[in-house]
Amino acid sequence: MASSPPRATRVFTRAWDLNPWRTTPPLNSKDNRTELTMAQNLYQEQPLPSFKSVELQDRNTITSYTHAFGPMSCEYSFANLFAWRNIYDISWTLVHERLVIHDGVEGYTLMPIGPSMAPTELVELSLSLVAAGMPGDISLVPAEYVMAHPELNRDYTLVEDRDFDDYLYTTMALAELKGRKLHKKRNLVSQFNRQYPDARIKTLTPPVRALCLDLAEHLYQANATITRTVSEEHRAMNEAFNYFDALGLGGIAILVQGAVRAFAVFSPLNDTTYDIHFEKSDHEFKGVSQAINHATAVHLKEKCRLINREQDMGIPGLRRAKLSYGPQRLVTTLTLKLKQTGEAQQPTPDPR
């Protein structure tokens, strides 16, 4: 009864013809060096294509992948990648016609976007990242992919983080606010409209953007506890406003008595979905939070079928607010942490 060759040899041999960087053959299966050493030997002469920082000129390339393959996580939005690029040291490259994005601060690589990827190819990528001196962990792996490939448990420790699930809503549900579950939201919007009959909805032209930044700065300075998350989001938002048109952003604001009391900034995530990047409201105006949510959906109902309102980051109040709108579903992803050499299970013998 023949046994299977060592896992690393099977991994690299399988997709050898797909690897455009290599000029030497894969290591012989009899070689008993560790998998990490094998990966380093395989990639040390011609490593992964260099990762580059996210720049405005990369927009067409990156969005061509998000529109063609339709990832649902907000982390793939070009506007988000650019606005947060310096905060998280975000870089990207193309590997086997797939878009590969790396977060240098958190130390993980996002699940590649492109043609369907077999688990063995994912392990190849992880090992080549390690050989290049980078962590081999892969994040934003769709739960459906993990369920379809239980063999991932052999090479990775699977970690789910509920705090970073995206909230996905149907645009029409948010625009119409029908049903008992959304009755309170509908009432708050009506109350706001009655109390502030002079309220106006404006698109984010340059003059209105300046008023939005005034509100954002006021809310930021009034925050009694400025956490790292709050500070970084404020920085990313200002960066997005600095490059608003170049990033293809859109948005609306609610003005009362000439001042912005709430605003939302958004852009297409893929062909079916818009991503709400930033939303701010002055809570001294009762119902304005619900009004901007509703007005955004009304504005987008002819543009997209779904709205991604991003994550709650484990903030209890934010989680309650997002759940209260009855999301169509949560976009659940996992992080695959590459097991250290020797931790992975040995392959089972081939019964043939």
Automatic annotation (TrEMBL):
Residues 73-329 form the Phosphatidylglycerol lysyltransferase C-terminal domain. Pfam families: LPG_synthase_C (PF09924). It comes from the Bacteria. This is Phosphatidylglycerol lysyltransferase C-terminal domain-containing protein.
